[in-house]
Amino acid sequence: MSDKTALTRTKHKGVEDREQIHSILDASSVGYISWAEENQPYLIPLAYVRDGDRLLFHGSTGAGALRKLAAGSPCCFSSFVLDGYVLARSAFESSMHYRSIVAFGVCRVLDGEEKVQAMNIITEGLFPERTATLRPMLDKEVAATLILELPLDEVSAKVSADQPHDEGDDISWPVWAGVVPIQHVLGTPAPADNLMNEFQAVPEYISRWTK
């Protein structure tokens, strides 16, 4: 843990267990990455996949933001999963259940076979069991894609899963208190308008994504 990743408040919510940190990252596929250039901060949302102790990002080689990260700009990545609303007897004590990650570092550009492997890892990470069924990537598609790796060397993680912190006279205040869970679920698959009739049935592996 470094000065950048050390928690200064609500330290009891901090997470250092590596497996739990991985599980927090695996609970989402969308995060935010930021960097600064000439005293101007920038931040973009992007999809990610965790592979071991690294994060993988992809985008167009023409994307200005990714080119800045590829050039070695120090960056900060964050991901946040909202798990519920904590309704206390006062607005001050009301809060949320969440799992959050902040990581610092410098991205590395992947090339050659390492790049191709990472592209497959990203596809499989976002769409499990689908990679083997897809048309093979074309050389021009590989060339047009930029793949970045961010090592998970400096990471700060927090989990908030507490009950409402009402105390004293607030306990008897005449209002409901408790937790309203939030669930993130996939909807019913909708076929493409131009899908051929013989492929109308939804593949079994897609049904496994919700399990």
Quaternary state reads single chain
What's the gyration radius in Å? 21 Å
Q: Please write the CATH class name.
A: Mainly Beta
The SSE order reads EHEEEEHEEEHHEEEH
Mean pLDDT: 92
The CATH superfamily turns out to be Electron Transport, Fmn-binding Protein, Chain A
Q: Give the overall shape, derived from the CA principal axes.
A: globular
- The appropriate CATH architecture is Roll
What structural category do the secondary elements indicate? Answer: alpha+beta
Total domain units: 1
The CATH topology assignment is Pnp Oxidase, Chain A
Strand element count: 11
Distance between the termini: 34 Å
Query: pLDDT under 50 segments (min length 5)?
Result: none
DSSP strand content: 25-35%
Question: Main β-sheet, in a few words?
Answer: 7 strands, antiparallel
What topology emerges from the helices and strands here?
Layout: E1 14-15, H1 18-26, E2 30-37, E3 40-47, E4 49-50, E5 54-60, H2 64-70, E6 75-87, E7 95-105, E8 108-109, H3 112-126, H4 139-143, E9 145-151, E10 154-160, E11 178-181, H5 204-208
Antiparallel strand pairs: 1-10, 2-3, 2-6, 4-5, 5-9, 6-7, 6-11, 7-10, 8-9
Write up this protein.
The structure is a single chain. The longest helix is centred in the middle third of the chain and has 15 residues, at 112-126. It contains five helices and eleven strands; from the N terminus they run E-H-E-E-E-E-H-E-E-E-H-H-E-E-E-H. The strands form two sheets. Strands 1, 2, 3, 6, 7, 10 and 11 form a seven-stranded antiparallel beta sheet that branches. It is an alpha+beta fold and 211 residues long. It has a single domain, classed as Pnp Oxidase, Chain A, CATH 2.30.110.10.
